[in-house]
Structures are given as structure tokens and as C-alpha cells.
Write a structure and sequence with these properties.
- The structure is a single chain.
- By secondary structure, the protein is α+β, with helices and mostly antiparallel strands.
- It is 24% helix and 44% strand.
- The strands form 2 sheets. It has a 6-stranded mixed beta sheet, with no helix packed on it. A 4-stranded antiparallel beta sheet has the order 2-3-8-7, with no helix packed on it.
- A hairpin with a 3-residue loop joins strand 4 and strand 5.
- The longest helix is centred in the first third of the chain and has 29 residues.
């Protein structure tokens, strides 16, 4: 009977340590995600949105990033989605985007370069 208690205690300790290690790794990983600032696009008319110029990026082609909320393994995650912009027009400090952004918030700034599918933290 004494051996059974020892094996049970060792097994319980193993599960406690594995649970603590898993939680620690998930928490510290989130602190290293890119930090982004968001703004909501202003709808001008059907299929046309006004966004700040900082949201539109040009790297050989025009694009911007929107952020979607998804369910992750440990709760909500915020994922960047790249939207290509074939039709835009500048209006001073803002840009008119002729594409459906789906009412999603637009990334204005980020602490690191983004790509489609990047998980981010919100500021």
C-alpha cells in the first residue's frame, strides 16, 4: 500500500509541474507578440472606407492589415489579415479605400513588421 501512495504522489507532482510549465510558457509567449494600435475605418459609402494614411503600407503594392478576433487554445487571440488595395485615393491625411473591410479595425502602427496571420497584442 505504501508503494501505491508514493507512485500516486509522484504522478500528481508530475501533472502539477506540467500544468505550471504550460501556463508559464503561454503567458510569457504573449509578452513577445507585436503590439499594434488600431482604428476603426469610417464608412463613406457602400464599399468605400476612409482610413488614416499610416494604415496604408506600400511595399511594391498597397495593402493594409485588419485584426480579427479568433478563439485560441487559451482564449481569445487577435490575428492580422492582409488586405490588398488595388483602388485607393489620397485625401490629405486620410486615404479612401474602395474595398470591403468588413467593419474590422485597421492597424495604424506596430512594434514589429506584420504579415498575414500574425498573432498580435492590442495597445
Amino acid at each position: 500500500m505504501n508503494k501505491v501512495k508514493w507512485y500516486g504522489a509522484i504522478l500528481a507532482l508530475f501533472f502539477v509541474l506540467m500544468g505550471a510549465a504550460t501556463i508559464y510558457s503561454c503567458i510569457t509567449n504573449r509578452n513577445h507578440l507585436p503590439l499594434v494600435s488600431l482604428t476603426l475605418p469610417e464608412m463613406v459609402e457602400d464599399g468605400c472606407y476612409r482610413v488614416p494614411n499610416q494604415a496604408v503600407q506600400e511595399q511594391g503594392y498597397r495593402h493594409l492589415f485588419v485584426v480579427e478576433e479568433e478563439q485560441g487554445a487559451w482564449g481569445k487571440e487577435y490575428v492580422c489579415r492582409e488586405i490588398l488595395l488595388p483602388n485607393v485615393s489620397n485625401e490629405g491625411q486620410t486615404t479612401l479605400v474602395y474595398d470591403d473591410l468588413g467593419g474590422l479595425p485597421v492597424v495604424v502602427s506596430s512594434t514589429e513588421p506584420l504579415s498575414d496571420g500574425t498573432v498580435v497584442r492590442l495597445s
